[in-house]
Amino acid sequence: MRGIALDGRRAAVAGPVAMNPNRTESTSISQRSNAMKKLFKHIVLLSLSSSLTLAASAQESVEQNILKLEDQWSEALVKADTAFLDRLYADDIVYTHTNGTVNTKTEFLDAIKAGKAKYISVDRSDVKVQSYGDTVIVTSRAIIKVNTVTLPSRLIHVFVRRNGEWRLAAYQSTRLPD
């Protein structure tokens, strides 16, 4: 097919319906192959982008769940809700107090039930959540009032996901200078 160029000369019309006698079948296949490769790359990039978005969303969900458990933990200590704490704490929790005393789950819950550990308040700040798959580490500052003592502290909580449920597997508090 021929057309007229702007300068008045005849020019070949290019486009999907124009036939190019110089075009070979291998050139056509090569161009289609390149187009398919580009399309495949775009599909892969789109899929990766979607996967990263879903992963970020899942990460936010884990963080929100853990922060909710953290709030419930503080409330349960103050209310002496040992039933909640029993569900939250892993059976093999390592519970390390500011004075270095280490309790098992049973020892700690028994102390609360007996009134030996009466939590007045747990005020946390500077809470940070780091997720590593089925393990989450939470760090924070806290002012813990227990019995007649006020303890400015740094806390580390280690949560693990077991059978789809988050459990507090380790608690460590370090007393800060007054």
From TrEMBL:
<dbReference type="Pfam" id="PF14534">
    <property type="entry name" value="DUF4440"/>
</dbReference>
<feature type="domain" description="DUF4440">
    <location>
        <begin position="66"/>
        <end position="168"/>
    </location>
</feature>
<dbReference type="InterPro" id="IPR032710">
    <property type="entry name" value="NTF2-like_dom_sf"/>
</dbReference>
<protein>
    <submittedName>
        <fullName>DUF4440 domain-containing protein</fullName>
    </submittedName>
</protein>
<dbReference type="InterPro" id="IPR027843">
    <property type="entry name" value="DUF4440"/>
</dbReference>
